[in-house]
Write a structure and sequence with these properties.
elongated, 32% helix, 381 residues, 4-stranded antiparallel beta sheet, alpha+beta, 2 domains, Aminopeptidase, Alpha-Beta Plaits
């Protein structure tokens, strides 16, 4: 039989979907999450009853509800930011779906955390420890997990386990944490007029040679542990009639295995350095992002707590996957963590992003149960 807390969540599905639309329509590109953060803080304040409610300078919002001493303490975090630079966002409703940028990644999870907060205060579950509900900045792109890093530092020692909440992937549970190293590769030269200074080294040409030299270094698809490398952005030059004095590429290296990631990292740096003659141009390598790789065991108490929440919510056996989320940072600190989702959908990180609304009926109570179950575990020493 469902508890009052669970019944409250079951009754909140429609309101949560409406909330997700409101959140999504507040633009929140990475590094520009403040308006959305203010809204979330106001919503937590309206719910009331918190032992602490803070919004830091970055825009991280954390609501704390104290529980029984000796019980587990859990941080449940949903990231605020999106990959979209749009100043205005519009969400469309279709039969059984919501469509629009950021609706699933990650507006629905922000709305879910707010709904769990309402349920915690309206119908407090018994036998739980401290619960910290967070809406954090900087998960996407060059945010480099800056939000969850700051929360883990400012609230160090106040929680034992972490649940990253994502809007999508309801039927996946994260056991593997894909690490990533991201770099900005920049070549600079003297430059000059394309006619008058013809013959001088061109930064674009030199960078292109360095990137082409990486071909033998690219990991082969289908080989375990899965390891990848991708050049995502290239920019440079001054004008069509100028020998380019500068060119930059942004490169992303990933792996499920920390050793494989570091080996690829070393090979990439060695290769690009060897491909650029220092007499022709200067190559600089600047790190712009780092996420630790790692894993959590299937029989870890936190994963068991999530699995119990799935069973009690009538959900099927999940796919155990590897991913890259805010939970990576906790794993890197040695704190048990995983990621749970609210619904299913597709086309994430595109303007065509969509979510199915029907799965939220089970997904919302599932996330609430997972948080409560984690807060019923014993304290970690």
């Amino acid at each position: 039989m469902a508890t009052k807390f669970e019944q409250h969540l079951e009754a909140a599905v429609s309101r949560t979907l409406d909330e997700a639309v409101r959140v999504a329509e507040i633009a929140a590109p990475t590094f520009q999450e403040q308006a959305r953060a203010r809204y979330v803080e106001e919503r937590f304040a309206a719910i009331g009853g918190w032992d602490a409610l803070t919004r830091d300078r970055m825009g991280n919002v954390v609501a704390v509800r104290k529980g029984e001493r000796g019980r587990g303490r859990v941080l449940a975090a949903a990231h605020l930011d999106t990959v979209f630079p749009d100043a205005e966002v519009s969400i469309r409703k279709a039969r059984g779906k919501l469509l629009g940028p950021g609706i699933g990644d990650n507006s629905l999870s922000v709305a879910t955390v707010l709904a769990v907060g309402e349920a915690l205060q309206a119908a407090p579950p018994r036998g739980v420890g401290d619960i910290l509900l967070a809406a954090n900045v900087g998960e996407e792109g060059r945010g480099d997990l800056r939000g969850i890093r700051a929360i883990c530092k400012s609230h160090a020692g106040q929680f034992d386990r972490v649940l990253a909440v994502e809007g999508l992937a309801r039927d996946r549970v994260q056991l593997g944490f894909v690490g990533s190293n991201r770099y900005e590769l920049t070549v600079t030269t003297e430059g000059g007029h394309s006619w008058g200074a013809y013959g001088r080294p061109n930064a674009i040409h030199l960078l292109a040679q360095a990137l082409a030299a990486l071909d033998p270094v690219y990991p082969q698809p289908g080989i375990e542990p899965k390891t990848t490398m991708s050049v995502g952005i290239i920019r440079g030059g001054r004008s069509v009639n100028t020998i380019a004095p500068e060119a930059t590429a942004e490169i992303d290296l990933r792996s499920e295995d920390p050793n494989a990631l570091e080996a690829l990292d070393a090979a990439m740096k060695r290769t690009v350095r060897g491909a650029v003659d220092p007499k022709q141009g200067e190559l600089t390598i600047k790190r712009i992002g780092r996420r630790p790789a790692g894993s959590i065991k299937r029989n870890d108490p936190l994963v068991e707590a999530v699995m119990k929440a799935r069973r009690d919510s009538g959900l099927p056996e999940p796919v155990f996957n590897s991913g890259s989320t805010d939970a990576n940072h906790a794993i890197g600190l040695g704190i048990p963590a995983t990621c749970v989702g609210v619904t299913n959908g597709g086309e994430a990180h595109t303007p065509r992003e969509w979510i199915s609304t029907a799965p939220v009926r089970a997904g919302l109570p599932y996330v609430g149960r997972a948080i409560v179950n984690a807060a019923r575990l014993g304290r970690r020493r």
